[in-house]
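## retry 2 of 3
previous attempt timed out at serialization; input unchanged, resubmitting
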Amino acid sequence: MAYHMKKILSVLGYVIVFSANAAFGQALQFSVTVNSEQLFAQQKTDPQSMTQLQTYMNDFLNNTRWSDDAFAKEEKIKCKLNVNLTRSVAQGNYEGNAQLVVSRPVFNSNYETVLFTFVDKNFSFSYLPSTQLYFNESSFTDELPYSLAFYAYIALTFDYDSFSKLGGSPYLQKAFNIANQARNASPNKRAWDMTNDARNRYALVENLMSQQFTPFREGMYTYYRLGLDVATQNPVETRAKVMSVLNTVKEVSQLRPASIVINSFFDAKSDELYRILIEATPEQKKQAYTLLVSMDPSKTQVYQRLSQ
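## retry succeeded, writing output
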């Protein structure tokens, strides 16, 4: 597996000389799909405008330079954004939801691990193919590019955190700045504001910025770089690191119960955690089962075999 250029230098400590002809570009490899079947049923849109919307979203996410680091094609951070449009209150005005999934390869394997998944229930915006949308990080412009930029910086936060302790902090700060700009200017208050919705965008970035979640973010480096990335060489070490991280997550979840970051972690990792820990010692499995069920009771059935 190839690592991003700066990550190789910081993690492995030696210089990689790339071919002068190597093509380096943007950080993200997004795949965006737009489901507008409900709008078609309501006769609220036409297929061509939806195709153009999907193209705009793909182009904006994949062609904007989100990082100063150099990325070869095989190093790009893989992301999926699945948009489900449910309502159009006026021409060009859309409401719906979106799911973001961020993943990265595991070293020395063909396995891709999900870094983060987030369901955004407040994905509302305006879009007309004939209208130019503008994006300016320092001043709110349009809802759609601001929402997409937020997703991009959150994806970079989780990816960089998995390679070095708190490595995603510069991108998290950018996501926080985006959220603050939008909170003051966007008409979509449900997504950006400090409301009773503990699972919206502002809640997500507030969690990640909080010092209470610093151990969680540091734990992601332990989980991925010190845990999963050595799984093929030392599975015993991987299980030990994963158990250490689960204990850290438990401590954070006691400070901030039912937080979106903790919930999203288990949404992304429950099956993977089971597969890692099913090979553990009986004592480790018993400890893991107790921890997992206490933090993620909705998936007790997934973890059940760890207790047997």
